[in-house]
């Protein structure tokens, strides 16, 4: 008897996971982590108003969420001073990237990204059969000019750029991105992932019109808003592009509690400001811990810090594994030369104390390996 | 300047919504519904233990959910007496159907369903370019023999069958489905949607082995478990098929609060039994209201009742619209001859009192139209 008949594309795909989750690692090591600093979650949590809104919404979970995400889209439109027609809400940036790739990328279509940039974007491109072309980072920064030149060269339909960048924490001024966009080839859409922009200096968000047809910007409640587990992201773009998501999205896919929580979180800008302050302090502390151990923290406009361990990827990986063995969950860049670093998310004082205690032992273990 | 370049398939798709949500209708009419009886949600709500678990989980929403859904998959495996390798958890049955279609259906591939069956399945098939072939209902029942014969005739990769059926509420004995599966053609996967099976008579669930490679069964926390807004569904199938979902699913797509709620809901089988009793009572009441108005309720193994309005689709639609105008949210089948019915979800006593009050006026309005 024949089994199910997969598409040729599906047959060709590996059953990979873009990231191994910390819970999986905890089950493997048989103990919980002491500090969860690997997924750039916000340990400072969401606004208490968001928590309260989610608790209030729990009893109403018997109802499907509003498939139009009306209230959240309108609140976001007010917040950004744009039209609700410029906004699509989805199941995190990951979900929205999947829909976007599906709309644009057929087997063989060219897509450009940086070597070592967000793997989940690559996962979606590969999943729809796209051909990924990569350009190197430049001095630990994504390189808009190189990305757009490569996009022109290969006739890319999409080019991905995160600003600020994950995993390096580096950033460009938004105005510089816009200037670089002059070289964006006709018919190539810039996917500008601004997941971390709320913890970046003023002027990092790209000053582009919401109707600009050359770019779609991705935003999220997973990072500074502290709601990674809620799966709420949104994209800002020209109305025609935004409405195209209605062709493919899971219309009733949004969790109703998450809708309520995101709405409340957006309205608590005081909490956002507090978190921004805590992130800045935690970045300083991570930097100080790194320097105390003879390592070089990279400047960061995100809620994490990449720490240059001073040798190659194998050494950084040994440091990381020794940290994980001590109960400190961190991650690291995948590609050279960025993989000379480990990536440490902003934590509470207790989290960072645990990291400070574990790091010298991890370095010693890596050096003696 | 050229805009973004969509795939030919994406260009061909309409920006449709499988269902208009009740919130959209409330905004259009400028008033909330008195009774929300259109989406087969469970007005009886989730287990109080699930609500409490979700409230407790709200503060931890800063963490991504476990991408393996380990605890829930293992609990479901225990519940069903199968292996966790037979279970994939996803963003509702809608999300899982999307992944399944993506794995199997390339442009032009044949898929079979019943004319008037679940539109969201058709939405996914169309979205991946599949060719949908339909067979008629037989006496308001889905017709397994006709479905499988058609599947053989067109070389279908997938055939969809809901048992119990939505929108008619009719059902087959599970053993009869299994017998009919002898005619399922080689290489055609049966998608057996058992979303409503927890409110059906014993013997409705198909007695197939979890490893049977011919079938994938869909289950959900959206119906009898009262958690539609949480977006938690799961599929049961052979391990190879189940692991194929890892090629395409949004690994971090599950809401963390929803994971906690579903786990608690599964463990409260007493609540499930209470809801089953209330559903049975509400079905009886809907039937009595229908008969009081000279209409014919159809037998139902679901949490809704299809009511035969005794004339054609235009008449039933007029009844429906008059109910909606009075604040009673109901829906109706899309295809003839089933569209002579309206479909009324089980409600609270207050909900059904409101329906009982509105129905005579709605019928009068429809008859005078």
UniProtKB/TrEMBL annotation, chains A, B:
Instruction: Pinpoint the Aminotransferase class I/classII large domain residues.
Output: 36-359
Please give the Gene3D superfamilies that the UniProt record associates with this protein.
Answer: Aspartate Aminotransferase, domain 1, Type I PLP-dependent aspartate aminotransferase-like (Major domain)
User: Does this entry carry the keyword Lipoprotein?
Assistant: no
Q: InterPro entries given for it?
A: Aminotransferase_I/II_large, PyrdxlP-dep_Trfase, PyrdxlP-dep_Trfase_major, PyrdxlP-dep_Trfase_small
GO MF annotation, one:
transaminase activity
Q: Which Pfam families match?
A: Aminotran_1_2 (PF00155)
Keywords from UniProt, A to Z, are:
Aminotransferase, Pyridoxal phosphate, Transferase
Q: Cell division among the record's keywords?
A: no
Question: Which cofactors?
Answer: pyridoxal 5'-phosphate
Can you name this protein? Histidinol-phosphate aminotransferase
* Species: Ruegeria intermedia
